[in-house]
Amino acid sequence: MSTEFTFKVLATDGKARRGEITMPRGTIRTPAFMPVGTGGTVKTMYMDQVRDLGADIILGNTYHLMLRPGAERVAKLGGLHEFARWPHPILTDSGGFQVMSLSKLRKINEQGVTFRSHIDGAPYEMSPERSIEIQGLLDSDIQMQLDECTALPAKEPEIERAMELSLRWAERCKTAFGDQPGKAMFGIVQGGDNPRLRERSAQSLSGLGLKGYAVGGLAVGEPQEVMLDMLDITCPELPTDKPRYLMGVGTPDDIVKSVARGIDMFDCVMPTRAGRHGLAYTRRGKVNLRNARHADDHRPLDDESDCPAARDYSRAYLHHLVRSQEALGAMLLTWNNLSYYQSLMQGLRNAIEQGRFAEHVAEISEGWARGDISAL
């Protein structure tokens, strides 16, 4: 296994890229979907299950882990890999998005952000340096810069102010990160829905010579067309020899269309959150197991799936579990959803290698369009 962080593009098909990130704790096949392990757990899943489904890397959340159980405590217990029993790569976000979205009382200035915990109201300070320090205590393999994510819609002066501040914070994060063999720090492109600001942010970050680049501040309520337009502007401005990560995305359709624009990495709570609320993702689109039409349906979610949750349990039983609020329902549907997402990524990787990406996307879309037909 490599002792350094490296990224190679192994194949391309149009703008879609099949690549490989190597680092001491493992290899990440791209395009990659990272299950979200917010507080050191992928909700309702065992880590062995997550790995067996094909995940090469998971995401941990700096904000939540710093509040509970505390980064220093995790460090004393051997770091997040040992703490959570996940010996493979971990990416930690900076905590910036959660500070902006969960903390009602917060103040942002050049130094950083001060806020109160959404758990108990305790005051905290988060600077770029402190964010990197926390991620270091967690011992994550890929660490994200602290940035300010602007909610959309927003006026151009506000978007520009946040983007410029994020650029300055990126420089400070790079300095704080220093030289950590085998690990990486990614910068985050901001700029809201403004093409000029997105382009400037991407160009400026590229000049910092970082090991990877993320696109942030999208999938925050704007139409999909806006997100895709921003990717069309941003991706050409980023280095071709570095991984590109679209943060917080998304639906299977979002992922497929973003891969087509050159994105390599994704994360989203959608498959796990949907599973806890009775929604299954399948080759035939979404299935809402809360609906009464499933009460007498003996079919599984997908009889061709490799995942036991999709293949071996009837829709009637899953419907019963969901309506009864049994924990097993959330467990099985999350298992199914993460299996589908990883299967989707493997299919995209194979199609890029085979030079049939467009055909494969057409097949995926045809399956979704057919939809899920109730048994008679």
UniProtKB/TrEMBL annotation:
<feature type="binding site">
    <location>
        <position position="147"/>
    </location>
    <ligand>
        <name>substrate</name>
    </ligand>
</feature>
<feature type="active site" description="Nucleophile">
    <location>
        <position position="267"/>
    </location>
</feature>
<dbReference type="GO" id="GO:0005829">
    <property type="term" value="C:cytosol"/>
</dbReference>
<feature type="binding site">
    <location>
        <position position="217"/>
    </location>
    <ligand>
        <name>substrate</name>
    </ligand>
</feature>
<keyword id="KW-0328">Glycosyltransferase</keyword>
<dbReference type="InterPro" id="IPR050076">
    <property type="entry name" value="ArchSynthase1/Queuine_TRR"/>
</dbReference>
<protein>
    <recommendedName>
        <fullName>Queuine tRNA-ribosyltransferase</fullName>
        <ecNumber>2.4.2.29</ecNumber>
    </recommendedName>
</protein>
<comment type="subunit">
    <text>Homodimer. Within each dimer, one monomer is responsible for RNA recognition and catalysis, while the other monomer binds to the replacement base PreQ1.</text>
</comment>
<feature type="binding site">
    <location>
        <position position="190"/>
    </location>
    <ligand>
        <name>substrate</name>
    </ligand>
</feature>
<feature type="binding site">
    <location>
        <begin position="93"/>
        <end position="97"/>
    </location>
    <ligand>
        <name>substrate</name>
    </ligand>
</feature>
<dbReference type="GO" id="GO:0008479">
    <property type="term" value="F:tRNA-guanosine(34) queuine transglycosylase activity"/>
</dbReference>
<dbReference type="InterPro" id="IPR002616">
    <property type="entry name" value="tRNA_ribo_trans-like"/>
</dbReference>
<feature type="domain" description="tRNA-guanine(15) transglycosylase-like">
    <location>
        <begin position="15"/>
        <end position="368"/>
    </location>
</feature>
<keyword id="KW-0808">Transferase</keyword>
<keyword id="KW-0819">tRNA processing</keyword>
<feature type="region of interest" description="RNA binding; important for wobble base 34 recognition">
    <location>
        <begin position="272"/>
        <end position="276"/>
    </location>
</feature>
<comment type="similarity">
    <text>Belongs to the queuine tRNA-ribosyltransferase family.</text>
</comment>
<keyword id="KW-0671">Queuosine biosynthesis</keyword>
<comment type="pathway">
    <text>tRNA modification; tRNA-queuosine biosynthesis.</text>
</comment>
<feature type="active site" description="Proton acceptor">
    <location>
        <position position="93"/>
    </location>
</feature>
<comment type="function">
    <text>Catalyzes the base-exchange of a guanine (G) residue with the queuine precursor 7-aminomethyl-7-deazaguanine (PreQ1) at position 34 (anticodon wobble position) in tRNAs with GU(N) anticodons (tRNA-Asp, -Asn, -His and -Tyr). Catalysis occurs through a double-displacement mechanism. The nucleophile active site attacks the C1' of nucleotide 34 to detach the guanine base from the RNA, forming a covalent enzyme-RNA intermediate. The proton acceptor active site deprotonates the incoming PreQ1, allowing a nucleophilic attack on the C1' of the ribose to form the product.</text>
</comment>
<dbReference type="InterPro" id="IPR004803">
    <property type="entry name" value="TGT"/>
</dbReference>
<feature type="region of interest" description="RNA binding">
    <location>
        <begin position="248"/>
        <end position="254"/>
    </location>
</feature>
<dbReference type="Pfam" id="PF01702">
    <property type="entry name" value="TGT"/>
</dbReference>
<dbReference type="GO" id="GO:0008616">
    <property type="term" value="P:tRNA queuosine(34) biosynthetic process"/>
</dbReference>
<dbReference type="InterPro" id="IPR036511">
    <property type="entry name" value="TGT-like_sf"/>
</dbReference>
